[in-house]
Amino acid sequence: MIRKIIQIDEEKCIGCGACASACHEGAIGMVDGKAKLLRDDYCDGLGDCLPVCPTGAISFAMREAAAYDEAAVRQWPVQIKLVPAKAPWFDGAKLLVAADCTAYAYANFHQDFIKGHITLVGCPKLDAVDYADKLTEIIKNNEIKGVTVVRMEVPCCKGIENATKIALQNSGKFIPWNVVTITTDGKILESM
Fold first, then answer.
1. What is the span of the domain harbouring residue 27?
2. Which 8-state DSSP code applies to residue 61?
3. How do residues 147-158 score in pLDDT, each as one tens digit?
4. How far is Cα of residue 16 from the mean position of the Cα atoms in its chain?
5. Spatial distance between the Cα atoms of 170 and 172, rounded to a whole number of angstroms
6. 99 lies in some domain
7. Does residue 144 contact residue 135 with C-beta atoms inside 8 Å?
8. Are residues 96 and 185 both part of a single domain?
9. What is the pLDDT of residues 81-98, one digit of tens each?
10. Cα 130 from Cα 184, distance rounded (Å)
C-alpha cells in the first residue's frame, strides 16, 4: 500500500539516537552508528521522531510500505538509555528493571523474571549514566502496575536498585516494587 512513512537521510544523520528514543513503536533503531527505519509496519506515520532530530535527517515520504500493524509493535529497545519514556507497551505493565549480567548469571531468567513483564536492562558501571531520570519519566508517563529490580550481588549493581528507588519516589506514584539479588554463582540471594 502507498502511505506516509518516515525516511532517514543517512548523510545528515549524526547518530545521536534521539529519534530512536522518541519513536514509541520501536520502528527506528541505531545500526552501525546511524538511525535506520527497521520495519515499515512499526512506523505509525505520526512522526514523533521528526522534531527531535537536530540535523533534519528525518522527513516524510509517500511510498509503498507495509501497513502499520499496531498489534505487531513490541517492546524494543530494552536498554534503559535507549527506550522511549512513553510507549504503548508500558501501559498496564509490570516492569522488570534488570542489570545486564543477571540474565547470564541466572539460568531461568526468562522464565522466572521476563515472562509477563516489560523488560529494561542496563549496567550502571558500563553505561556510566544515572538511570533515575529516565526511569522517573517512564513511571510518570505510563500506568505501571509494579516494578521488579533484578541485580547482581556485586556493589556496582546497587546503582540500578538505587536509580529505581529514586525514580519511584520522584514519580509521585505509589507502585509496589521488590528487589531480587542474584549471586555470582547464579542463585537468588534475597528477595525484598
1. 2-64
2. E
3. 999 999 999 999
4. 16
5. 5
6. yes
7. no
8. yes
9. 888 888 878 888 899 999
10. 23
